[in-house]
């Protein structure tokens, strides 16, 4: 039994999906240009505990964008990233996450990569288009694509949110993409849910019947399930030691 099949068998029988995802590649996989070195990525804290961010009007995409861009420039970087399981105040601005019917959702389930509008997005591994949709709620994903993957018989999904409208204009369900193919570009604030340009990248084990959408933010009561169903995307990207 080769090492990938062995790790696949172990992961599924121990119900350790995160271990399986981490085993897919020992090298970093890329959703942005592979020629951008890790030294040009800088982590950013957008949590509710960041006192510096608390001084920013995060209801304004322009002011939040200034905060992010200044952070990138100070570190002589090109991309700011982070946010997995981060509790954020930014979602308070939208009834999509914060209403009286359900528990407030403010825990981020993917990783965000903040960079320039129209930045190309690449397939990190081979996949086919599972679904796509323009999620137009205020504060939502905007144009969104979900890819389906199969490795050693195991099916899982990756979600790409805050894309440009052109990214989903000519997509087809079942369309194939190879690793390193350009699959999309980033949208601007007018289409991406009113955020500074960035990619929301998320791994999903069980898609639960969703099409073109999947929760990217959860509340405390659902965190255990979503943490298991949506492991840390850094297991693929390997931008930081996990």
From TrEMBL:
Residues 107-206 form the M23ase beta-sheet core domain. Coiled coil: none annotated. It comes from the Bacteria. PANTHER family: MUREIN HYDROLASE ACTIVATOR ENVC, PEPTIDASE-RELATED. This is M23ase beta-sheet core domain-containing protein.
């Amino acid at each position: 039994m080769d090492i990938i099949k062995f790790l696949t068998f172990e992961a599924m029988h121990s119900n350790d999906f995160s271990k399986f995802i981490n085993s897919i590649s020992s090298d970093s996989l890329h959703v942005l240009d592979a020629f951008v070195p890790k030294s040009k990525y800088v982590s950013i804290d957008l949590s509710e505990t960041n006192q510096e961010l608390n001084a920013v009007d995060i209801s304004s995409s322009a002011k939040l964008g200034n905060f992010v861009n200044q952070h990138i420039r100070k570190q002589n970087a090109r991309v700011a990233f982070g946010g997995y399981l981060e509790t954020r105040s930014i979602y308070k601005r939208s009834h999509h996450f914060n209403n009286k019917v359900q528990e407030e959702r403010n825990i981020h389930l993917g990783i965000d990569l903040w960079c320039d509008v129209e930045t190309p997005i690449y397939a990190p591994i081979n996949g086919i288009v599972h679904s796509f949709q323009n999620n137009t709620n205020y504060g939502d994903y905007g144009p969104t694509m979900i890819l389906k993957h199969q490795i050693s018989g195991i099916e899982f999904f990756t979600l790409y949110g805050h894309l440009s409208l052109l990214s989903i204009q000519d997509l087809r369900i079942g369309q194939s993409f190879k690793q390193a193919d350009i699959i999309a570009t980033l949208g601007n604030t007018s289409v991406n849910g009113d955020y500074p340009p960035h990619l929301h990248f998320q791994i999903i084990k069980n898609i639960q019947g969703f099409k073109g959408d999947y929760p990217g933010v959860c509340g405390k009561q659902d965190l255990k399930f979503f943490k298991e169903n949506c492991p840390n995307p850094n297991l693929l990207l390997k931008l930081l030691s996990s």
